[in-house]
Amino acid sequence: MRIVLVGPPGAGKGTQAAFLAENLSIPHISTGDLFRANISQGTPLGQKAQEYMRAGQLVPDEVTIGMAKDRMEEPDAAGGFLLDGFPRNIAQAQALDSFLTDKNQRLDAVLDLEVPEDEVVKRIAGRRICRSQSSHVFHVEYSAPKKDGVCDVCGGELYQRDDDREETVRKRLAVYHSETEPIIDHYKAQGLVTTISAIGEVGEVTARAMAALRPE
Ligand code: AP5
Ligand code: ZN
């Protein structure tokens, strides 16, 4: 399956993507995680992305689209993938459409996670992520690690993202409304969108998402 996950910052895209990708046996491709990996490795791409991410702005399309395509060309993505955080504006959605058309492929679904803004703010304020490549996600209250500051999964150090400060979060939400939300209509016109509520326990949301993706 080829799936796009969309929703505001803090909706739980990364959290759900980890479970959905495992259930569906497809790779989880997060452009945010790819950028953060490049930043921690100090690559030129990471250096370019860093200033935009810190400011809560989108990284320019000429950097992002190439990086996403390269990742989708990797062998593990040949049979399908779950995109998290890409596409994030109309130009990226159009680039993805032509990338797939050229390969005679198409998206199967666009899953839109709906969460009220006050909940998003709470989720982001308490988020802690792991420094490992896998970016395991925790929340100080909703899914607290067993030991403070240490990842339950891999023992990595947990930290608060640079762009999770309140002011930057407000900017990211504004960018989401102006740049990213329009892709929902773009995909509605293709009959691909299912909107689900992302409120409730993580497992409940996963069950709702699986029911939307595999209705039978
Ligand atoms: P990115 O990393 O994609 O961030 P985002 O879209 O802002 O989304 P988040 O990672 O903040 O949230 P999420 O929905 O994954 O929530 P999570 O599962 O962590 O992008 C970061 C930046 O990179 C962008 O601002 C931009 O600069 C750049 N970028 C990335 N892609 C780009 C692109 N395509 N084009 C241009 N620039 C791009 O959950 C949040 C918290 O809530 C966690 O603590 C979690 O434990 C908790 N939680 C999750 N589910 C639940 C639940 N059901 N109940 C209670 N708590 C929950
Ligand atoms: Zn970890």
Task: Write a structural description.
Monomer. It holds the Pfam family ADK_lid. Pathway: Purine metabolism; AMP biosynthesis via salvage pathway; AMP from ADP: step 1/1. It is an enzyme of class 2 (transferase). The protein has a single domain, classed as Rossmann fold (3-Layer(aba) Sandwich). It is 47% helix and 15% strand. It has nine helices and eight strands. A hairpin with a 6-residue loop joins strand 5 (127-130) and strand 6. Helix 4 runs parallel beside helix 5 (90-102). Zinc ion is lined by residues 130, 132, 134, 136, 151, 153-154, 156.
Short synopsis of the structure:
Monomer. Belongs to the adenylate kinase family. The protein is α/β, with parallel strands linked by helices.
What is the average of the pLDDT values? Answer: 95
Fourth-tier CATH superfamily name? P-loop containing nucleotide triphosphate hydrolases
Question: How are the strands of the largest sheet arranged?
Answer: 2-3-1-4-8
- Helix-strand category: alpha/beta
Give the total of beta strands: 8
Q: Number of helix segments? A: 9
- Gross morphology: globular
CATH architecture: 3-Layer(aba) Sandwich
Q: If you consult CATH, what is the topology? A: Rossmann fold
Order of helices and strands: EHEHHHEHEHEEEHHEH
| Straight-line N-to-C gap | 15 Å
**Number of self-contained structural domains:** 1
Q: Characterize the largest beta sheet: strand count, sense, and whether it forms a barrel.
A: 5 strands, parallel
Strand content range: 5-15%
